[in-house]
Amino acid sequence: MVPPPSMPASLLSPLPNAPQLNLAETRADMGDRAASHAIQILQSVLSNQPRARVMFACAPSQDEFLAALVARSRDAIDWSRVTAFHMDEYVGLAASHPACFRQYLHSHLLNHLPSLSAFELIRGEASDTDAECARYAAMLDEAPLDLICLGIGENGHIAFNDPPVADFADSHAIKVVQLDLACRQQQVNDGCFPTLAAVPTHALTVTIPVFRRARVLSVVVPGPRKAAAVRATLHDTVSTACPATILRTHPAATLFLDQASAAKLT
User: Fold this and answer.
1) Domain containing 138: what range?
2) 238 in Cβ contact with 246 (< 8 Å)
3) Residues 142, 154 contacting (CB under 8 angstroms)
4) Cα–Cα distance between 33 and 27 in angstroms, integer?
5) pLDDT value at position 74?
6) Distance CA 191, CA 225 (A)
7) Is residue 9 assigned to a domain?
8) Which CATH number covers residue 61?
9) 10-residue averages of pLDDT along the chain (266 residues)
């Protein structure tokens, strides 16, 4: 990859086993690049097998990527052969709540892709969360995930695997977790909730082994509030202190950044 003129070439040589870096000038350009990459992956998968399985993150950091994916993929992807999953949901939050991740994914992606084969959702309002975890885990176990489109949290989480609850060898595919303070504050910073008190304290999340088993990871991380987490992801010791460091062990992970999120990579 040839870097943009203002991006030093040294940024394209991260630590051994780090994700491949794709560095954009703007968030919009970053979204375009990530969408093009996802389309290429799905086209490759669908040329070799009858169906594809893809998981999407739900957060404002994914806005530009999902908008570009919708715009570019209608004629490029046969969505009737694709099953979509989402990766986390708040415990006890109704599906109609504006901060519900199912609402986000419907408004930013699913409503624009009417031919999508299926959307497998996590029911955060389920009265029996253990049963819901078992149901969703069974669907995840049916076949490998071909692509996961994810982000990285301000505290280095992937999905809702915050440092206190992250487990690189988790025996569960999905579990209930307590959200740490930094994670809950991020939801306020993102404008998803008006106050910290309004943010749910628990969520259901797919676990880190789900990401490790996926065939391809596309990691979209824009904005200045993610710069410290990006640097930690690429340069800190691989540990649950920054769960995203595990991305350095994946053979097919690409990290899409804009100038703001790459600012601490010097």
Assistant:
1) 52-257
2) yes
3) no
4) 10
5) 86
6) 13
7) no
8) 3.40.50.1360
9) 35 54 97 98 97 96 97 94 95 89 92 90 93 97 96 97 97 97 93 93 97 97 97 96 97 97 92
- Which pair of structure tokens corresponds to residue 71? 């715009």
* Residue 170 placed within a domain: yes
CA distance 57 to 152: 10
What pLDDT, on the 0 to 100 scale, is given for residue 168?
97
Q: In what order do the strands lie in the sheet with 82-86?
A: 20-23, 253-257, 216-221, 147-150, 52-56, 82-86, 118-120
The answer, as to whether pTM is greater than 0.85, is yes
pLDDT of residue 94: 87
Tokens of 162: 């915050």
pLDDT on residue 14 = 42
30 within a domain of the structure (yes/no): no
* Residues listed for the chain: 266
DSSP SS3 for 60: helix
**252 vs 231: CA distance, rounded Å:** 19
Looking at the structure of the chain, the number of domains it has is 1
Beta pairing partners, 242: 239
Q: Where are the beta strands (DSSP E) in the chain?
A: 20-23, 52-56, 82-86, 88-90, 118-120, 147-150, 174-178, 202-206, 216-221, 253-257
* Residue 147 domain flag: yes
In this predicted structure, what is the pLDDT of residue 141? 94
pLDDT at 140: 96
Q: Which residues pair with 140 in a beta bridge?
A: none
